[in-house]
Amino acid sequence: MPVADAEVEVLIVGGGPVGLTARALLERWGVRTLLIEKHVELSPFPRSRLINVRSMEIFRQLGLAAEIQARAFAPRYGRIRFRDTLQGSDFATAGMVGVEAPIPESPVIGVVTSQDRLEPTLLAAADSELRFGVELVGLTEAADSVMAVLADRRTGNQARVRARYVLAADGANSTVRRLLDIGTTGPGALAAVTTVVFDADLRRWSADQPAGVYLTAHGTFLPLYPEGGWAWFGPTPEDRAHTDWSALVTHALGPHSDVKPEVLRVQHWVMNAAVAEHFQHGRILLAGDAAHAIPIMGGLGMNTGLADVHNLCWKLAGILQGWAGPTLLETYDSERHPVAQRTLHQAVANTQLSLQVQTNRRTQLQNTTSPPTPLELPWTDRYFAQLGLVLGVTYTSRAILTAPESAPTSPNPDGAAEQPATDAAAEQPGTDYLPIPEPGHRLPHLWLTPTHSTLDTLGEWFTLLTPDPTHWNHHPLPAWPLHVEPLTPTQATTLSLHSHEALLVRPDGHITARYPARPLDFRFRRIVR
Q1: Within 10 Å of residue 353's Cβ, how many Cβ atoms?
Q2: pLDDT digits (tens, 9 = 90+) for 376-417
Q3: Are 378 and 391 in contact (CB under 8 A)?
């Protein structure tokens, strides 16, 4: 392999929210990274709109949640409204559970914000090296590393960087995925879409009925920032080169509108729906849109990518720091790939249902001369909750120790109840979430103090929650980083823990094992090795 110009532990390709979050997570683990982004600056387009409650839990763990929430819309904007035009009244509306108001299942609340408002916060969350205007043009894998060829788009100069691992978060048209010849499955391109960012005073139609999304028969309107600014998106016109975008937006506002939008930016893009055939290729990992292109309806795409790197980064850190073996990395694909498939299915369903509302409304308006009657929605009032999908993801892999389903948890000679498991992931039904303190599930939120949650005990370590920390502190600690968190008897009962029992929780918040009154021993070593 040629001589490298530089060496890093992890090369991150892509400087969007997923790549930037991975950079922040790995820096907290002490992993040396280099992030490259082919564009010369952060994206000026709003793009992703919703940070769901699970992603805000990740940002709380990084110490960023308060800043992100302070710059986002108020909770009352966590609602979708359907109208004939923006000027019209609602003919349907739906709240986003976990965004519109706090929920007891989490210490945080999701927010409506714009990607261009989020990315600067993520950029400032780490100090590791970042190069804008640099793209990946070549990859060569070896047994112990990956050689990446990087090109400066301004000068044309090339450099070689050797990385122990490559994390590809370079978008739906991923260069890394193309270079590796990894195919995708799914519907593919759903629609050609145009986003128009504009300034206009639309308060007369939105101030008293706020929402994060206004879906109309003439396109979708999005408020961009609490202080002002709007975006419209809809199907790309056939003759887009000669389209008067200001006139198009004015038409979408409604008849006789006297508003003249000031168009600031126009972006054409394709709404894709696909999942990569696999997320791992040797030492190269796909995450975010590079791994799965999720339609925007429901705000699931970016959030799924954030969960990807939350799952992945602690595994990379463990391997690089020597307390985990390389086979642990195989659980990334087996845990996250099924989640992406399920999320894609849900997002396509969201899109179809939303289009159904708009189609039914147009039909209703065309077939009557009297005021239309209220439209029956094709979902329940909890449809947009999606908490089962957001908080209810359950992993079953070699990184999880599970007790036999047909028998109560009991000690075995190796110190943990266990059954062989096939690597997989599952979710609770999309609209419902039931906290379950069992292996594979997200650790349920429980207030340990008025301001300190069980989720706040997580970090760059495994967490052992137990009502009897003295019992566990008497035993030799494992080689991997561990924090022991004491519980009161009431708290332990809520988590279904008895006497000397304990829950072992991974850094990404998923329960690894329920231990009986036996010490941690070599059994978990087999998982991280």
Answers
A1: 16
A2: 665 555 555 578 888 999 999 999 987 543 233 332 323 333
A3: no
Phi and psi torsions of 422, nearest 5°:
-85, 130
10 Å CB burial of residue 46 (0-12, 13-18, 19+) is buried
**Phi, psi torsion values for 96, nearest 5 degrees:** -95, 105
The answer to whether the beta carbons of residues 196 and 68 sit under 8 Å apart is no
> Where do the H-state alpha helices sit in 62-123?
65-70, 115-123
Question: In this structure, are residues 139 and 166 in contact, taking their beta carbons and an 8 Å threshold?
Answer: yes
Which two three-digit tokens encode residue 133?
């205007």
| 111 residue type, one letter | V
pLDDT tens digits, one per residue of 132-141? 999 999 999 9
The residue among 195, 201, 197, 219 whose CA lies nearest residue 258 is 201
If we measure between CA atoms, which residue out of 395, 394, 392 comes closest to residue 431?
392
- Closest C-alpha to 164, from 9, 32, 316: 9
Tokens 């359950």, located at residue: 394
One-letter-per-residue 3-state SS of 299-352 = CCHHHHHHHHHHHHHHHHHHHHHCCCCHHHHHHHHHHHHHHHHHHHHHHHHHHH
Angle, helices 330-366 vs 301-321, to 10°: value is 180
Name residue, tokens 């000026």: 44
Element housing 57 (H / E) = helix 53-61
Residues found in the chain: 529
Query: How many angstroms from the chain centroid is the CA of residue 77?
Result: 20
Distance CA 199, CA 197 (A): 7
Q: Are 315 and 279 in contact (CB under 8 A)?
A: no
Q: Strand 219-223 vs strand 213-216: parallel, antiparallel, or unpaired?
A: antiparallel
Q: Are 268 and 236 in contact (CB under 8 A)?
A: yes
Question: Strand ranges (DSSP E) for 68-183?
Answer: 79-83, 90-95, 111-112, 129-132, 134-141, 146-152, 158-168
d(CA 131, CA 339): 31
C-alpha span between 378 and 381 (Å, rounded) = 10
Q: What is the pTM of this model?
A: 0.91
Encode pLDDT of 248-303 as tens digits.
999 999 988 889 999 999 999 999 999 999 999 999 999 999 999 999 877 889 99
Show the DSSP H helices in 443-522 as ranges: 469-473, 489-494
Mean pLDDT to the nearest integer, 477-498:
92
The rounded distance, in Å, linking the Cα atoms of 11 and 185 is 26
Q: Which of 109, 440, 96, 120 is nearest to 297 (CA)?
A: 96
User: Taking Cα atoms as reference points, which of 114, 277, 78 lies closest to residue 185?
Assistant: 277
Inter-helix orientation angle 115-123/17-28, to 10°: 20
The H or E element containing residue 221 is: strand 219-223
Q: Find how far residue 101's CA is from the centre of its chain.
A: 20
